[in-house]
Model the fold of this input.
Amino acid sequence: MSPSDLVLGRVSEGVREPHPGRTTIDREPDYLHDEHTLRSWLGSTDHKRIGILYLLSITFFFIIGACAAGLIRLSLVVPNGQIFSNDTYNKLFTIHGVVMVWFFLIPSIPATFGNFIMPIMIGAKDVAFPRLNRTSWYIFMTGAFFTLFTVVVGGVDTGWTFYAPFSTTFSNTWVVPALIGVIVVGFSSILTGLNFIVTIHTMRAPGMTWFRMPIFVWTMYATSLIFLLATPVITIALILLVMERAFHIGVFDPALGGDPVLFEHLFWFYSHPAVYIMVLPGMGVISEIVPAFAQKKLFGYRFVAYASIGLASLTFFVWGHHMFVNGESETSAVVFSVLSFAVAVPSAVKVYNWTATIYKGSLKLDTPMLYAMGYIGLFVVGGLTGLFLATLAVDEHVHDTYFVVAHFHYIMVGGTALAFLGGLHYWWPKFTGRMYPEALGRLSAFFIFIGFNTTFFPQFLLGYLGMPRRYHNYPPEFQLLNILSSAGSVVLALGYLFPMFYLTWSLRYGKRAPANPWNAKGLEWTTSSPPPKHNFETPPTVDFEPYDYIAREDRV
Ligand code: HEM
Ligand SMILES: [Cu+2]
Done:
């Protein structure tokens, strides 16, 4: 058998042998070993290399954001706010939010796995516009470093939401340069979304019909629609904010005829959909991992695909739930409340279908699957507490308290970050050609789950009891729960640190990865690990259904 037979391994023919390694000489070099210079990386238009560049960048931003989080939790160990001044505390939570949301969570899965895996999943040799893809990374880095510089060196105290009128009139910090960086980063999102949409429309391999696309590709498509349709709104809102602050044009300042609530409308018209930029890709990752580790077809494939598009559409109609208590009519509050409840339907469709896929599957509880199961649990808590908040009377009580903080961390950390780590372990062999150490993987998944819940569950209680967010002075009776939360964050931090070390270690010492270590389905597992420069030795054709694991319908 020639190496290319092994590499090609058409799924339909059931060829599952691992690739024998990188010793054969008659193969194209893989994307990692093609050229080694820094220039060859920074000038590369290969979607895989660009995915890796994003992976390194967002890891860097994550570390900065996590350090700020650690300092926030340190400050909250004592009730009297003695560890940092008010000013420093405000700047710390701004660094944390700005960096985590804009430079980690939003680009995380789409820019890394979306770039690396999506084209391979549809059998393409690259994205539709490879040079534009490289440009997107440069735009991202330029804007992100600009803002990072201003928030770390200069300091900004507005929080990640930059609410007017504080950001326009009252703050004495580096608001304008911070905003400029965020505006620049938005263009990177728009271009990535455009690139992905065109790629999915035009670059699919022969036979890869829409309903043969893996769910991850569907979620990349839905996410790209949000990137394209929602990002321009935040761009304009932030430009107006800059103009208001610099030139007092009177869009948001009532004294000049403006309206500060207008900013909240514009902000959330983007930022609520943006939370689905964070959550949909995570759902995509989970929809790949669960069938692979249950060795079972994804239950209700079409429903899960439609639910992705459904979520991406509905998410544009619920932004008003962020303004229940500050400046909207009762009628619109009721309408936004009802619409927010509707979001639960497609979300539940996904959860039920993952559960049904797991049910009676032959489960393998490897690291990616542990993350996936953790994800499902945390996402359910996050989603259900979203329904609490969408209930007008409850939100009246817990708005701007730690309950909200707990809610969005369950969704965004529990959802996005766990899916990200699950996906990172799942595709690590494909990215690098090396296996990670399984025992350490499981251990860190365990640390993260325990650490996460210890950190954030007490915050639901704190919020319910009335502790407001964004303050670091609090009544002493809240101290115990705060100490618990801070202690949890130490465990959580350890859980994040382990993978940084053992994954780096595995680059050199990890076992060599076969083409398909998980016995998983999908085109990405039919090419060698790491993939050759143009993804496949011979362009694939698709004559199989998605997730064609051995039929177990009889068992469901
Ligand atoms: C699925 C992904 C979700 C994500 C990523 C997410 C994220 C967030 C974030 C970041 C905030 C706080 C924003 C801030 O003030 O800084 C928030 C607040 C809120 N979320 Fe969610 N959420 C999700 C799901 C839901 C769902 C399903 C609902 C309702 C059905 C919901 C309802 C709310 C409400 C009402 C608030 C505002 C609470 C308040 O400030 O009083 N969320 N969410
Ligand atoms: Cu929202």
Remarks:
- The longest helix spans residues 260-294.
- The two ends are 38 Å apart (CA to CA).
- The pocket of copper (II) ion (ligand 2) is lined by residues 272, 275, 318, 321-322 (CB under 6 Å).
- Residues 1-24 have pLDDT under 50 and may be disordered.
